Amino acid sequence: MPRLKGADRRTLILEAAERTILRKGLAAATTRDVTSDxxxxxxxxxxxxxxxxxxAAAFSHVIGADIERSVTGRMGEAPETVxxxxxxxxxxxxxxxxxxxxxxxTELGSSDPALADAASRGTDRWQAGxxxxxxxxxxxxxWACPSPDESSWRIIAIxxxxxxxxxxxxxxxxxxAATHHLRIAxxxxxxxxx
Amino acid sequence: MPRLKGADRRTLILEAAERTILRKGLAAATTRDVTSDxxxxxxxxxxxxxxxxxxAAAFSHVIGADIERSVTGRMGEAPETVxxxxxxxxxxxxxxxxxxxxxxxTELGSSDPALADAASRGTDRWQAGxxxxxxxxxxxxxWACPSPDESSWRIIAIxxxxxxxxxxxxxxxxxxAATHHLRIAxxxxxxxxx
DNA sequence: GACTTTGTTGAGCGGTTGCTCAATTGAGCA
DNA sequence: TGCTCAATTGAGCAACCGCTCAACAAAGTC
Lengths: 194, 194
Known about the structure:
The structure is a homodimer of 194-residue chains.
Chain A: H1 6-24, H2 31-38, H3 43-48, H4 51-70, H5 79-89, H6 96-108, H7 113-139, H8 148-167, H9 175-190
Helix pairs in contact in A: 1-2, 1-4, 4-6, 4-7, 5-7, 6-7, 6-8, 7-8, 8-9
Chain A binds a DNA duplex (30 and 30 nucleotides) through helix 3.
């Protein structure tokens, strides 16, 4: 309810949208969820954003922050440490919401161009980060990995695939099993270690 | 509009539902889509099915038929032929609708127990079929493959993951690239060939 | 042919959604 | 203090959804 300058209100709404999609998912989240999170009238959101644009921006921001936290922002650390942490935390409970966003963005992207664009750009950033991580490890002699650019695509694919299998209620694949499979796939791509 | 015995009407509705979800996807399909496909009043559907149950049954039937067509029903053929066809056709245009169903079932499963159950059972059938295919190939000496049961999970995961990447409009990954990555992943799992 | 049974109709209910817009509020300024 | 105008409100619109239900129509039975 406090009165704010336009730009500040925009960022507050964006942050509320990020919380909302993390809690309810991209498909189930509504404009009213966001405004009630802020304690603000329903009409205010449409004054600053279209729902389609806001939702895509929130998705982009959330996954961008996660890529930064887990890969891009750790360029100074040993590649094997970064990759190992990535594998260990991939299917933790806290990661569920993020995987859900990825899967939903893929699906909703077919009817929401803004979301499709955000998913496409996010994937590119992710792949680029992972690829340079693998290249660093190869350069350091930590592991073989003839083609970091290709390996990163396969690792992303198996991450997304295993995550989807884990997200099915009454899941046919446990988190531990998924982590195990991911570790082996990564070993296939990196030659040794991980 | 012709008058039918209950059981016949049920199968007609189920078939129409299958066509509908293949055309529009699980999330976008509506009960009215199905009844108008049959040229029948909207109220008739609810007389035979709940939408949740019908949608899950249609999904289960569609993917069951595909697993039968591509794996389970080809138990008499050479394992390498079956696997090779699987890889070649995985990301064809015709397969798009099926992959979309898998991804949507995963997502909608979190709010639709019937769909979650169908996805879970479908995954199990798929994994069992693929696992026995790999086991047959190993027994025939076609390829190494120390653990068909584990390899089948990883192949399914990378199939789902690559399919999701291909489905994003303005896709960051082309069909050919996806097929290439799948082929290499399968080679990793099977040792030689494929 | 009268009567029951059952498949079928379609208007409409109750609920949800993103978004509109006239009215209201309050901060900034003369 | 009074004026201005952007920020905010919230009832409500239009569209969509699955599903209900009283009414109708066609077999089946005697």
